[in-house]
Design goal:
This protein is α+β, with helices and mostly antiparallel strands and 175 residues long. It is built from three helices and eleven strands; from the N terminus they run βααβββββββββαβ. The protein has one domain: Sandwich (Jelly Rolls), CATH 2.60.120.10. The N and C termini lie far apart (44 Å). Keywords: Dioxygenase, Iron, Metal-binding, Oxidoreductase.
């Protein structure tokens, strides 16, 4: 088993052991995502999971901090300055996320082959948690608040090895 744990951070050890137990059950991806979301709702750490310097983000794009990685899952903190956003993308695995600060505005899409269709929007606020699994996870995320946003993401893959949780970037027109 490959395992990389960064410096211990407040609340991270409880998450790692809880997620390990859930992943060990061998559930299907969607059920795993929902079970990890339930755990995250109960154990969502505070902003002190990152150092004050890490919480600043960078001026040119959102930043990710790999907090824990092993073969079965990874925990990543994402820092978004106001109006920073992702490209439209999907993921290599199930994902669960919890919002620590800011507002993550998520736009969901369906791939129609030669174009995308918007199928939903959500404003994810501090304390809110959600989870999903491919297929059907095509989205774009933007921090629409006036403050730096921080979210905690759990992916069902070792993003330390993969380099990213993104499976595919979508450059199709949206109709």
């Amino acid at each position: 088993m490959n395992m990389v744990a960064t410096t211990m951070r407040p609340g991270l050890d409880v998450l790692v052991s809880g997620i390990s137990e859930i992943v060990g059950r061998g559930l299907v991806a969607r059920e795993t995502a929902f079970a990890v979301a339930d755990l995250l709702r109960d154990r969502l750490p505070g902003l002190d999971v990152l150092t004050p310097e890490e919480r600043l983000g960078t001026p040119d794009r959102y930043t990710s901090h790999l907090l824990h990685a092993q073969d079965e899952f990874s925990i990543v903190a994402v820092v978004w300055r106001p109006d920073q956003y992702t490209v439209i993308h999907d993921h290599v695995s199930w994902c669960t996320f919890g919002i620590l600060s800011g507002i993550e505005h998520e736009t969901l899409y369906r791939d129609m082959g030669d174009h995308l269709v918007e199928i939903g929007r959500a404003d994810n606020r501090p304390g809110e948690v959600s989870g999903f699994a491919p297929p059907g996870d095509i989205h774009m995320v933007r921090n629409t608040s006036d403050e730096v946003g921080v979210s905690l993401h759990v992916y069902g893959a070792d993003v330390g090895k993969l380099g990213s949780s993104v499976r595919r970037v979508y450059e199709l027109p949206v109709r």
